């Protein structure tokens, strides 16, 4: 199915954007499409330059990375209401992880360069988006920390 345009009202219902002022939602809606992808669709791979980012409306997306001797290791799985992609905000920095749909997924897709331009043109919008992105990054770091501590305890129990 071809991507379709998005309304500000549709974005307002997304968890990541909840409470964002209407004029800022309108700015995002102008550079967004609603995209549907099948399970197995790769959104991006490690090392690619970010051009888009996504807000999941339905489905699940795994964030993964390459590991020696293995194809991909799943770092975490994201679902409804979550953001796929953080590196886009710092482009041209490359993606640090890959992302693949683990089930059919519907997401709002954004033109990253256009959103960054919007942040430059409207500092209030830039601050609001930066605040939300930092909260998302902090949450992911805490989840990763908890996962690593659990792994450490598990390894210690195994004598490793």
Summary keywords:
single chain, 160 residues, alpha+beta, Jelly Rolls, five-stranded antiparallel β-sheet, four-stranded antiparallel β-sheet, 9 strands, 36% helix, globular
Can you tell me about this structure?
- By secondary structure, this protein is α+β, with helices and mostly antiparallel strands.
- The protein has a single domain (4-157), classed as Sandwich (Jelly Rolls).
- It has 4 helices and 9 strands.
- The chain has helices at residues 8-12, 22-29, 112-121, 123-157; strands at 4-5, 32-37, 42-44, 52-58, 61-67, 70-78, 83-84, 98-101, 105-111.
- The strands form 2 sheets. Strands 1-2-9-4-7 form a 5-stranded antiparallel β-sheet.
- α3 (112-121) crosses α4.
- The radius of gyration is 17 Å and the shape is globular.
- The chain starts with a strand and ends with a helix.
- The model has no long low-confidence stretch (mean pLDDT 90).
Average pLDDT score: 90
**CATH architecture assignment name:** Sandwich
- Major sheet: size, sense and barrel closure? 5 strands, antiparallel
| Strand residues, percent | 25-35%
Element order: H for helix, E for strand: EHHEEEEEEEEHH
Estimated structural class: alpha+beta
Kindly report the name of the CATH homologous superfamily. Answer: Jelly Rolls
Uncertain parts: none
- Number of folding domains? 1
Rg, rounded, reads 17 Å
Any idea what the shape is?
globular
Q: Provide a count of the helices.
A: 4
Relative helix content: 25-40%
Tell me the strand order in the biggest sheet. Answer: 1-2-9-4-7
The first-to-last residue Cα distance is 49 Å
CATH fold-level topology: Jelly Rolls
Q: How many strands in all?
A: 9
- Give the CATH level 1 class: Mainly Beta
């Amino acid at each position: 199915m071809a991507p379709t345009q998005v309304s500000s009202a549709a974005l307002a219902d997304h968890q990541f954007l909840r409470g964002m002022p209407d004029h800022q939602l309108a700015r995002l809606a102008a550079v967004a499409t609603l995209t549907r992808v099948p399970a197995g669709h790769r959104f991006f791979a490690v090392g690619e330059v970010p051009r888009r980012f996504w807000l999941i409306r339905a489905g699940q997306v795994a964030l993964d990375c390459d590991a020696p001797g293995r194809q991909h290791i799943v770092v975490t799985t994201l679902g409804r209401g979550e953001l796929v992609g953080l590196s886009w905000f710092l482009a041209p920095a490359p993606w640090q992880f890959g992302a693949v749909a683990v089930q059919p997924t519907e997401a709002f897709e954004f033109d990253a360069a256009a959103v960054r331009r919007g942040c430059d043109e409207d500092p209030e919008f830039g601050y609001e988006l930066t605040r939300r992105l930092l909260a998302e990054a902090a949450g992911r770091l805490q989840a990763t920390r908890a996962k690593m501590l659990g792994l450490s305890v598990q390894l210690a129990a195994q004598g490793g």
